[in-house]
Each structure stands twice: as structure tokens, then as C-alpha cells.
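Format notes (please read before filing issues)

Several people have asked whether sequences and C-alpha cells are stored in separate files. They are not. Every record keeps both together, in the order shown below: the sequence lines, then the C-alpha cell lines. Line labels are part of the format and must not be stripped during preprocessing.
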Amino acid sequence: MQALAPRLERLGFDGLWLNDVPGGDSLAGLRVVAETTERLRLGTGVIPIDRRPVARLDLAGIPAERTTFGIGSGGTHHPVGAMADAVAELRVRTDARIAVGALGPRMRRLAAELADAVVLNWLTPAAAAAAMDDLRRDAGDRSGEVRGVLYVRTISDGAARAALQKEADRYGSYVSYAANFARLGVQPIDATINRESALHAYDGVVDEVVLRAITAGGTLDELERFAETTAEWRAAQSDG
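Then the structure lines:
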């Protein structure tokens, strides 16, 4: 992050979201990003509260004014109630924006009612549009205040196609995601982007698209090339 984050800022990216994975710490990563950047928006997508309860999160050193703390239910029992409590507790601890990771309609409704954003995942443009319609309806008077953030897996190098398919197959093997894909009538790979031009399909659908870069080897060099290629494509589209 120390090398990549400043480069992303120079290339004109708006923000950087860090996953919180077992054995890793997204908050520690955000502290590094905050120290090495000036304007880049920061986010966690998302911290599972069953593994990392809100009371134990170290939020020090992370600038609240440019941060969104994303939390998710993980394997929590009674997830909607637990997440409502977690959002309320996090409100007391920080002035940063709070996002709720939501796969299904009940959690999206909770995000609409209590959070500043919802983090969506593995949705086609059509499914994302339907989810956003639900979010706006459920938010009511708050509809203009609750942002829809969508993680989209993508590649910029044909050599990473196998890795993209492997990632799609992995999520397709998870019970909750498999049920959601079946409900939507799509295959996991349908909710990924393998050409930059396909990103336009999400224009005006969600408030923010987070590109989850899939590379062949997951190296820093590959991630830097991905960032540069994506920035060049964005610039070309703007000029066009």
C-alpha cells in the first residue's frame, strides 16, 4: 500500500477500498494509505463483525473526513439485529461514514435505514439497478443520503482470465452466494468485467464502482500495471 496508494492518487483515482481478510488488517492498511496520500478516499469492504467486533476495532490514525468504514455480518447469528447494533455502536465511535455489506434485501433495507452506504457485491448491471431501486425506496426521505457502492471483479490483461474464472468459481461455491446467483438467474462470471468498455454498463446505476483487480499473480507490479492501464483507458474515454 505504501507504494501503490500514492500512485493511485497521482493517476486520478477517487478512492481505495481495502478488503479485510483473515490474517490481514484493513484498518492497519488504511493508516498507511492515509499517511502517504492527501485526498484519496478510504474504505474497508467489509470488516466482518463476527471475527472483528466493533468494540475491538482500532480506528486511530484514520481520517474520518475521508473514510467509509464498511462492516458486514460474516457468520453472525441473527445477522440483521447484530448489524443494527454494530452500526449504532460504530456511530458512537467515529464521525466517518458507515457502510453495510449487503447480499440480500433485508440487509439492504437495514443499510437504507441506518447507514450512509451499502456495499454490494457480485451483481450484473441489471441486478445492481434492481438493488438500487430497492435501496432508494427503502431509504425514503434519506434516499439522497445513502450511497450504493458496488464491488466488480475485473481484469485488464488477458493473462488473468483464468484467475478471474477461478475467483468466480470460488464465490459460486459459497452457499449464500450460490443461492443469490440462482435467485438472480446468472452465473458468477456474468457479474465480472473482462473488458474495460463493459464498465460503462454500470454508469448511472450505482454511486460508486470499486474495481477489484484480478491479476495472474497478484504481484505489486501487476497491480501497478492494472492501475496505469485503467487510468489510461479512463483518460481516453474522457477525451472521446
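For reference, the curators noted about this record: Strands lie at 15-18, 41-48, 67-72, 97-101, 117-121, 147-154, 208-213. The CA atoms of residues 124 and 190 lie 7 Å apart.
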